Amino acid sequence: MTAQLIKGSEIREEILGEIGKEVEQIKEKHGQVPGLATILVGEDPASQSYVSLKMKTAHQLGYKEIQDTRSEDISEQELLDLVEQYNKDDSIHGILVQLPLPDHINDKRVLNAIDPDKDVDGFHPVNVGRLMIGGDEVKFPPCTPAGIQEMIIRAGVETSGAETVVVGRSNIVGKPIANMMVQKGRGGNSTVTVVHTRTKDMEFHCKRADILIVAAGVPGLVKPEWIKEGACVIDVGVNRVGEKPSKKDPNKMVPILRGDVDFDAAKEIAGAITPVPGGVGPMTITMLMRNTLNSLKYKLGLM
Ligand code: NAP
Known about the structure:
Blueprint: E1 4-5, H1 8-30, E2 35-41, H2 45-60, E3 64-70, H3 76-88, E4 94-97, H4 107-112, H5 125-133, H6 143-154, E5 163-167, H7 174-182, E6 191-195, H8 202-207, E7 211-214, E8 232-235, E9 239-245, E10 253-258, H9 263-266, E11 272-273, H10 283-299
Parallel strand pairs: 1-11, 2-3, 2-4, 5-6, 5-7, 7-8, 8-11
Antiparallel strand pairs: 9-10
Helix pairs in contact: 1-10, 2-10, 6-7, 6-10
The protein binds NADP nicotinamide-adenine-dinucleotide phosphate (NAP).
The site of NADP nicotinamide-adenine-dinucleotide phosphate has 24 residues, from loops.
């Protein structure tokens, strides 16, 4: 059997189309568009390219977007003041501070200064608490886990009563997705197990999974024989395992990316599986756009 491919790149287009329509409707009816401000400190090339991708997507959707770039020597107080400026700006509904920040700045202090009602990344302790409570309390689910859950739902995979096993317990992927899958409601109601480096028998747990979500950052960690026949496998891992010449420009080298699951063998056993790249990756920015739109909708009393 060859598994159904769950392609994040296709689901992204579907969701961005839905968002674009809603933005137009809200603009027509309420005269407002979602506003997203991203604060970038320094010139780290990876951060620059990630921020510009976010801004490009926001621009295409008709959002107001501000990329506020500051020099490496900005003081912590200046950065806190800048965050406060966007907290007070009524045309801004989402604020992002791109990490990493320079060593002299306490990133926790800066991230916690973002108004929780504009924290579209969903990492502020208030939003982590809201996610834990679940239901109507949730405002901004963190973007990668929200993307994972949305992919599972849109692939038509039944989550209610399913055995879901999450490999990894990070604050940005493992813990929040485990929490989301166990909640009552759409895409939830699973029986969730979380495994990590101290788990005694990973294979035993993975083999029981109807839904296996792997976010460890270890290429090929999950062996094909650990996968239950027909399971839904979501591979969050993005690992650089080498370099190859670019298809567009053969003189340029691009990274070879692999997931945490042995994809070629796993796709013959699983019922549905995400590829790497092109699986979970494209979903993160998509869900960031959705959170920013929702922030405006909360403000307008539309949610
Ligand atoms: P992280 O903070 O390094 O956490 C990795 C987790 O996996 C930890 O809980 C760790 O367990 C567990 N783990 C590592 N090696 C393991 C092993 N051999 N056996 C069992 N558990 C193991 O990583 P992360 O930020 O969650 O990211 C995980 C992967 O997802 C990375 O490849 C990252 O690049 C990718 N990612 C992709 C996206 C996206 O596509 N949009 C977004 C975020 C992350 P301990 O807690 O016991 O150490």
